[in-house]
Amino acid sequence: MFTQIPRVVVAGTHSGVGKTTVATGIMAAFRRRGMRVQGFKVGPDFIDPTFHCAGTGRPSHNLDGWMLSGETNLEIFGRATKDMDVAVIEGVMGLFDGKNSQSLSGTTAEMVIWLDAAVALVLDASARAGSGAAVVHGSSYTLYGDPGLRSDRTSSIDGGIDQPLWNSRMLLSASYFYPRLNETIIFDSSDAINAVTDPRGRSGGYRNTGGGIARGTEFSASVAATRSVQLMGACAYTDSRQRAPLVAGVRRTYETLVHLNSMSATQRVTSRPTAFFAYAGSSDYLASLSGGAFQFDGPTSGQLGLSYRRPLGECRAIRFYSRADNLFNQTYFENGFRPPGRTITGGTQFEF
User: What is the mean pLDDT of residues 336-342?
Assistant: First the structure.
């Protein structure tokens, strides 16, 4: 007996993240809309279900993938939701916490798969910003995830040399790098993952695979031409290839610039006004669009800027600046898309 009613599992990244508060709040919100809500708790917990009762007005039931079979859990769920409008299931610990790290046994993720339910992931976002997105992305359960994936493994060799000249007014630098990605995680939508043989029944998703290699050199020079003029220039070569073809006949890593050259000049007119010019040019590169590999002209752009900084005290100053990007209005592509032509920006910066 398995009723097909809307259901959501409130899971967390770890214990104590706030699953009970969120789950009870969702239950109460549905009830206030006049819906008949049935609450559940994954695991043998008897405290959290008492909070569920306050939100739903009826007893909450336990589901447990460690002590009960999938069929028994579905039977409990079906009987409890027979006359309900919606079910809210609170998970246990973190989404993938269970018997061990090599299987989904006893985890909230296992219950999600058995119930074919949606997931509301509770994340403690305090003291973090973009890192939270990485946690959410890594907690993706669906048919794409695999908690048994191995972490990326890399090895690398690099070295360089710096040579000062002209009483240290000039610095010449050269470096060589050779990183090797021994194993990595990729998203595979090909037939490499078979739903019949995959332990989680996936027809696509994340898997381990051999990585690639990159090797290259970089040369740079900087020189203080005068007391107020600083010149810099650099050129880099990178050969980055994958072990397995990205598409038929293509091993070159996407969006990697084989040749990249840059130069800049900075002029401090006095202690306050500054002018600078910068130019960067690169070779073409490959990018993936609609599953195919396409070649695009590399970024080639000039930049000119002016600024004036006026001190307002020992720790305060105000700076006025203006900058022109893509100075020569050249056509190039970034990640397969054409950026704007010549643009001019300006503003004021207050330092304190």
Answer: 82
